[in-house]
Amino acid sequence: GENVEQHPSTLSVQEGDSAVIKCTYSDSASNYFPWYKQELGKRPQLIIDIRSNVGEKKDQRIAVTLNKTAKHFSLHITETQPEDSAVYFCAASRENYGQNFVFGPGTRLSVLP
Amino acid sequence: DSGVTQTPKHLITATGQRVTLRCSPRSGDLSVYWYQQSLDQGLQFLIQYYNGEERAKGNILERFSAQQFPDLHSELNLSSLELGDSALYFCASSVAATGGEETQYFGPGTRLLVL
Fold this sequence. Notes:
Order of helices and strands of chain B: EEEEEEEEEEE
Oligomer: heterodimer
Number of strands of chain B: 11
């Protein structure tokens, strides 16, 4: 089955700097890769996603890149703000596959003022 | 607000007991997923239902079971509870059955504490 690894497990950046979180997956048939942000004690919320027919997607300060050959995808946050501090989870899934989402273990991002 | 509701928000019970967690999906969503998140742990997929039928099973213990009713709400039953079952239990919903390329919207979670 699918296995998703995520690095780093913790990340501290200064406000205004960029943050990059990388995930690798094992199932080459996976074709949907969402990113979720989870603030302390709250639900995971989708912040951006990418499908396998796209190499990069951007939404304001957030971007995701996908390298299907290498089986990895990355989350990029630019001009970080204190409210970006949270745990970020990546996930991988395969269309028409009942096992659906496999999440990475998460990255705790701290944005220091 | 994702539109997914879960009750109760908090639940405190004792070892050996049985509890039921309830989830109502977003309007129009036919799939419901259950996840367990232990302290400082990631999201562990438990089970998926689509339109009343079990669709996929993950790391769900035999002591746990779930069902989805005709009105599409779902219940997760946890029995013979152990201390290690203490966790945050999330429900998520999506439109279709495939589980892939489907955005999942999470409910607020039920925090279970087993004493």
